[in-house]
C-alpha cells in the first residue's frame, strides 16, 4: 500500500496523526474500511492493527470479506473472539443491547491496545451520532476515539472519498449486527441469529443487495430497497423458498422498504415475538 497524498484524505490525516498507534475495530463496512485503509496509509502497518470481532452476531461472509480486504490492502490484521452471548444483559435484548455488545468488543480489544501502546478507534461517522446507538457510549467510556467524527465525515463523504481512493467498499450496502434484526425484548440466541443470517444469504443469492430480514417469531419481515420490491414480487416463489429454507413459516414483504434501524426503540414497528427455534 502506498502513502496517499494528504490532499485526498484531507482533515482525516491530521486526526490520525494525532491519535498515533491504533487498533482499528474493522467490520469491513464502508466506514471502518476507509478508516483502516487510511490509517494504514498514513501511519504505516507497524502502527495500525486492524481487528475483526468474531461472534454469532457477525455473518460468516462478513468475516470472510474482512480477511479478503486485509490481504488485498496489506493491512496488519487479527481476529478476536467476543463474548457478548455470555452476558445476560445482552441476551435480554433491551434498549441497552448495543451498549453491552460494544462493551464486550472494547474489553476484548483492550489487551491488544495495551500491548501495542495504542488507542482503539471505531468507524463512526457524524450521521451515526443522531441514531440510537448506545454502543457509542460504551466505547467513549473505555477511551475509544472516532476519527471520522473528529474529521467531520458524514456517511456520504465517507463513500465519496472511498470512491475517489478506489476502495471497493465505497458502495458497500449498510450493515449491522444480526442481533439488530430481533425486536427489543426478543432474547438473542445463536439459533435466531443463524436463521436471520441464512435467510439473508439466500436472498442475496437471488440478486438482492441492501436488505434486512426482521425476525418476528415464525414470521420473517423482509425489507428491500423500494426499486427491488417489484422484483421480489416477480420472484415471489423463489423469495418465499429462500426465506423458508432458514426455518421461517411465514414470509412478509415490508411495503415501506428498507429502513436502517427500523427496530430501534423509536420505531413504531418494534415488537416482541418468539423465535424460529427455542
Could you please describe the fold and organization of this structure?
The chain is α/β, with parallel strands linked by helices and 278 residues long. The chain has helices at 6-9, 11-19, 30-43, 60-73, 88-92, 97-116, 135-141, 147-150, 155-164, 190-204, 229-234, 236-244; strands at residues 22-25, 48-54, 77-81, 119-121, 211-216, 219-224, 250-253. The strands form two sheets. The chain has a four-stranded parallel beta sheet, with helices on both faces. Strands 5-6-7 form a three-stranded mixed beta sheet, covered by helices on one side. β5 (211-216) and β6 (219-224) form a beta hairpin. The longest helix is centred in the middle third of the chain and has 20 residues, at 97-116. It is globular.
Name the descriptors.
42% helix; alpha/beta; 278 residues; 13% strand; 12 helices
Summarize the SSE layout with pairings.
Elements: H1 6-9, H2 11-19, E1 22-25, H3 30-43, E2 48-54, H4 60-73, E3 77-81, H5 88-92, H6 97-116, E4 119-121, H7 135-141, H8 147-150, H9 155-164, H10 190-204, E5 211-216, E6 219-224, H11 229-234, H12 236-244, E7 250-253
Parallel strand pairs: 1-2, 1-4, 2-3, 6-7
Antiparallel strand pairs: 5-6
Helix pairs in contact: 2-3, 6-7, 10-12
Summarize the structure.
The chain has 278 residues and is an alpha/beta fold. The chain contains twelve helices and seven strands.
Amino acid at each position: 500500500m502506498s502513502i496517499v497524498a494528504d490532499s485526498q484524505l484531507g482533515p482525516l490525516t491530521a486526526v490520525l496523526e494525532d491519535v498515533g498507534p491504533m487498533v482499528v475495530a474493522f467490520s469491513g463496512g464502508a466506514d471502518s474500511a476507509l478508516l483502516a485503509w487510511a490509517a494504514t496509509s498514513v501511519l504505516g502497518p507497524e502502527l495500525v492493527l486492524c481487528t475483526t470481532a468474531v461472534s454469532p452476531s457477525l455473518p460468516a461472509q462478513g468475516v470472510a470479506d474482512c480477511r479478503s480486504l486485509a490481504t488485498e490492502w496489506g493491512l496488519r490484521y487479527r481476529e478476536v473472539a467476543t463474548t457478548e452471548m455470555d452476558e445476560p444483559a445482552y441476551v435480554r435484548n433491551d434498549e441497552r443491547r448495543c451498549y453491552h455488545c460494544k462493551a464486550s468488543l472494547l474489553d476484548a480489544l483492550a489487551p491488544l491496545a495495551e500491548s501495542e501502546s495504542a488507542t482503539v478507534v471505531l468507524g463512526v461517522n457524524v450521521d451515526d451520532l443522531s441514531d440510537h446507538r448506545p454502543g457509542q457510549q460504551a466505547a467513549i467510556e473505555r477511551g475509544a476515539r472516532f476519527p471520522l467524527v473528529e474529521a467531520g465525515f458524514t456517511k456520504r463523504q465517507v463513500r465519496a472519498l472511498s470512491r475517489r481512493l478506489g476502495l471497493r467498499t465505497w458502495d458497500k450496502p449498510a450493515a449491522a449486527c444480526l442481533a439488530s434484526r430481533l425486536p427489543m425484548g426478543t432474547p438473542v440466541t445463536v439459533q435466531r441469529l443463524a436463521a436471520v443470517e441464512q435467510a439473508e444469504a439466500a436472498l442475496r443469492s437471488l440478486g438482492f443487495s441492501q436488505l434486512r430480514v426482521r425476525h418476528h417469531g415464525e414470521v420473517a419481515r423482509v425489507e428491500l430497497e423500494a426499486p427491488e420490491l417489484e422484483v421480489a414480487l416477480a420472484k415471489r416463489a423463489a423469495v418465499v423458498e429462500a426465506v423458508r429454507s432458514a426455518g421461517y413459516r411465514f414470509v412478509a414483504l415490508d411495503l415501506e422498504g428498507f429502513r436502517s434501524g427500523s427496530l430501534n426503540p423509536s420505531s413504531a414497528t418494534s415488537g416482541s415475538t418468539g423465535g424460529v427455534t427455542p
